[in-house]
Amino acid sequence: MAPLNIIIVGAGIAGPAAAIGLAGNGHRVTIYERSTTGQEVGYAFRITPNSDRCLKHLGIDTVVGGAVAANRARIFNSHGELIREANENTDPEMAKKATSVFAYRPQLVKQLMDAARSSGVQIETGVKVTSVDVDNTSLTLDSGATVSADLIIGADGVHSAIRSIINIVYPVDHGKLFNVTICHPAHLSDKEADQEQDNATATSYNHKVSFETVRDVHKGWDPRAIRLLELADPEGFRIWQLMDMDELPRCSRNYTALLGDACHPVLPHSFSGASMAIEDAITLSEFLERDVERKEIPGLLKLCEDVRKPRVARLRERARQTAEGTGVEGRAEYMQFLAGHDAVQFAKERLAEYKRERSQMRTGKQTQL
């Protein structure tokens, strides 16, 4: 069976993760990334065991890349009062299979990109996609060139060009960096936010904000929190809008599909944004096996949607509740739902079920004839 020719637009987390899995299945994969360097500017975030399990399946060890084990988390309010604390990675045997860690996004992306290159993935940076022909499965680039594929994957983030076209605080870096992320009402920093050129810039992780604005936003906070801010490089503060999106009617069309934030951006309050991108990538790569035929792709993309949508919907709603301060109840149950999920095994089971159903349908048609 001839391998598929697959184009992925976007080199964040979902794109290279999917590329590694698909290349491992023998498919030819090319990534197009609009940034000229292919290097991320970003933040640190939590990788829960469900996504760490997926990354290990791809051969990615986040701790080797600089992530720090999230063995204990303590939550304080703005006055410095302890709200709750939780211990994680308490089972040594389970921790070997999947660990909760704090990771620095640029480092994880670099690990994924390096692994993708090692898997034979071709990566083109400084390339912008200007149009997509869904019916003919082709892209037009800003150079004027047109490239065709068996499958196009849009993994180009919350402001996905592909989507619009197809109409569908913790240590990181081996403990050398300390990440501080603080959410605040938008009106408190409107003056600097007004300087943004467009929404895409507003959600970029590279927009600088002055220390004076940061200090004013957090006036009256616990002195220890203010001291943390004062220790930071004044040029190192960044600001961006938090965004999510209601469920799309569909995340695929013919031979074109969306992954990660391009399909379902979620608020960061449920530790699930990057996790969902990684699970998307794993699920799709498990479905597109080595011997898959091109004609099977639309059905498998639909299966991927059916598998992913219910889980993402629950996580999206939980993130919204937590952002509003109403998501405290049932935390243990939620964390088990999030972290206990094995996306690889679940995808294998659903694919086997899908194949059985297809086989039974074909047998039934033959019997009727």
UniProtKB/TrEMBL annotation:
Residues 1-19 form the signal peptide. GO terms for molecular function: FAD binding; monooxygenase activity. Residues 6-176 form the FAD-binding domain. The keyword Oxidoreductase applies. Coiled coil: none annotated. Pfam families: FAD_binding_3. Keywords: FAD, Flavoprotein, Monooxygenase, Oxidoreductase, Signal. Belongs to the paxM FAD-dependent monooxygenase family. This is FAD-binding domain-containing protein. The lineage of its organism: Eukaryota, Fungi, Dikarya, Ascomycota, Pezizomycotina.
